[in-house]
Design a protein that fits this description.
By secondary structure, this protein is of the alpha/beta class. The protein has 15 helices and 13 strands. It is 42% helix and 15% strand.
Length: 418
């Protein structure tokens, strides 16, 4: 007889097992620390001291989010430990004096370390704190979330930000969404601070320094996200056929997750549409160059839509954004997504029926002045304090650190800080 365990039960058992292992590990670690403390007559090393600020990144592509904040904190002399789940994260090679970077393992290994952190503040762009494998550590005083793209906070999967203490946002509509979710779920109000978008500031400054791309043929960038509602799942190779018929240069840049989660589909498309003088497939870690030399972007609900439109000030063509909201926080709100009002102001919607007219759509978007005006409106709604994001983020983090450490002193906490 073969025992069958359904996925839900299996997941529950796995969580229970992780909890037991974690509890055992924590107990042994505490015993080891106490014994070492006793044998060393009260002396301890830096590994047992409370870290002022930990920044956690679950993927190397988020270093662009944290780099400007790290730079600003480094200028001010605040000690930071940057923990990453990517062994090739560029942050591991940072040259900041006060930012120590370390690879903490991938997947559950990383979360196991995070679950027993001893830190005053943890800053991350990773959703799902205290929902999935990543649990709040009882030795961390405060968790702050910063978003990794412009747009809704409610397009995270359900409960993605519920258990953070504070959120750093860039638009008033984001705060409205957060407060509505808190009210529905009877959650305590999180601290919300509007800081802007540091990584967009950084990219805009880089673009101003580099200037526009050299003269080139009209170039179209196809940059879909991944999943059942993404461009390739809906249109398949038909959209590539339509793009090639325009005669324009075509760059295809799939979402990094597609190369693992949708490998079979991508391998098939890359074999059917090999690189040529007209077509190129792009996998650069840094998307700055490919965005700079593209004249128009075709995408779906990927965050790159707003990066391209608001930073590079160019139009977009987007697919039907009415994807299934059931797994996401947006499902709980009784109003349309902000994105649904933003997209028509910055570009045109592409449907299956309009694929045959793709060239005309591209030309129209590039030549119609109303989209330039729309970009100004959308930029003002979702990108507060341009050029000031890193400064405002660092101001808030350091102010919060000061508040938390003062409170610790007042109640007699003897945690050691570095």
């Amino acid at each position: 007889m073969i025992l069958y365990i359904d996925p839900g039960t299996g997941s529950m058992l796995f969580t229970v097992l992780l909890g037991l292992i974690g509890a055992a590990f924590y107990s042994l670690r505490m015993l080891f620390i106490k014994l070492r403390f006793a044998f060393s007559r009260g002396k301890t090393d830096i590994s047992d001291k409370k870290i002022p600020l930990v920044i956690f990144s679950d993927d190397k592509r988020y270093w662009t989010i944290f780099a400007p904040i790290c730079r600003e904190l480094d200028k001010r002399g605040m000690d930071v430990v940057y923990m990453t789940a990517s062994p090739d994260d560029p942050g591991l090679k940072n040259k900041f004096e006060h930012v120590h970077a370390e690879f903490i393992g991938e997947g559950n290994k990383a979360f196991s370390k995070l679950n027993f952190l001893n830190a005053t503040i943890v800053l991350s762009t990773t959703p799902g704190l205290d929902v999935y494998q990543w649990k709040r550590s009882k030795n961390v005083d405060y968790y702050i979330h910063i978003f990794h793209t412009a747009g809704e906070v409610t397009r995270y999967r359900m409960f993605g930000i519920d258990y953070y203490d504070a959120l750093m946002i860039a638009g008033d509509y984001q705060q409205t969404d957060i407060r509505d979710l808190e009210a529905q779920r009877n959650l305590p109000a999180k601290e919300i601070v509007k800081v802007g978008i540091p990584f967009m500031d950084e990219m805009a400054a880089r673009l101003a320094k580099e200037g526009p791309a050299p003269a080139h043929p009209r170039t179209v960038l196809l940059a879909p996200t991944w999943g059942p509602s993404a461009i390739f799942k809906i249109h398949g190779g038909k959209i590539i056929d339509a793009l090639l018929k325009t005669g324009y240069h075509v760059i295809i840049r799939p979402h990094p997750q597609s190369f693992s989660s949708e490998k079979e589909m991508l391998d098939k498309l890359m074999a059917e549409y090999p690189e040529s003088e007209q077509l190129e497939w792009n996998r650069d870690t840094d998307n700055f160059d490919v965005l700079r030399r593209s004249d128009i972007l075709i995408s779906d609900f990927s965050g790159v839509v707003f990066d391209f439109s608001l930073i590079y000030d160019k139009p977009v063509i987007y697919t039907d954004p009415n994807f299934n909201l059931a797994p996401y926080d947006a499902w709980f709100l009784d109003r349309p997504l902000w994105t649904l009002s933003a997209l028509p102001r910055i570009g045109k919607e592409l449907s299956i029926d309009s694929l045959d007219n793709l060239k005309e759509m591209i030309d129209s978007c590039l030549e119609d002045s109303r989209y330039a005006e729309g970009r100004k409106e959308v930029r003002s709604e979702t990108w507060a304090y341009p050029t000031e994001g890193a400064i405002r983020s660092a101001d808030y983090i350091m102010e919060k650190y000061s508040q938390l450490t003062n409170k610790e002193t007042e109640r007699g906490d003897t945690s050691v800080t570095v």
